[in-house]
Amino acid sequence: MKLYTYFRSSAAYRVRIALNLKGLKHELVPVNLLNSAQNGQDYLAVNPQGLLPALATEKGNIGQSLAILEWLEAEYPDIAILPGDHWNQAQIRNFSYAIACDIHPIDNLRVLKYLSGELKVTDEQKTTWYKHWVEVGFNKIETMLEQSSLYTGKFCCGESPTLADINLVPQVFNAIRFKVDMTAYPKIAAVYEKCNTMQAFIDAAPENQIDAN
Fold this sequence. Notes:
Layout (H helix, E strand, L loop, with lengths): L1 E4 L4 H12 L5 E4 L10 H4 L9 E4 L2 E4 L1 H11 L10 H15 L8 H9 L5 H25 L15 H15 L8 H10 L3 H6 L9
Parallel strand pairs: 1-2
Antiparallel strand pairs: 1-3, 3-4
């Protein structure tokens, strides 16, 4: 398999974590978002959406990180990222979608570029936008963890990392980049710290990627 990736792409970061957790051999193919390489014809032939990541498999290519993660789980279930019964899986998806669907899309790079380029907002205003929506989302996630019977103090949903943690860690990484005060979210911060003691997460981290320079 080939994963088309960018070291600071949250969506690609998710897939890198999952591939590592499942112990799946893969090749990383960097696509430079800052240079808009995702809009070039070579990459559009791989993923017509012009978004990262994309996973090239023997069966064809998949875009959209959540679709990739669900496919990996169905195809390689031995190390589960959606463990338990249907109810447990729904709780994991609930956490995951709260991050991937409600926080990430309005704070990703193309939105920030539009704010700067088309709407001419200042860097300070752009950072204010980013922090506002992350903080709104993290307030909800922190409450969800407080109320969840699955939260153990280690991971979002149980004693091992799941799809929820795979989505949370990249979002926290970027929140820290934008100087969000994580002391306001002790449970989220605890999950982030625990995950980052695991080699699968360490190897997937942006600073450890081949294009992080």
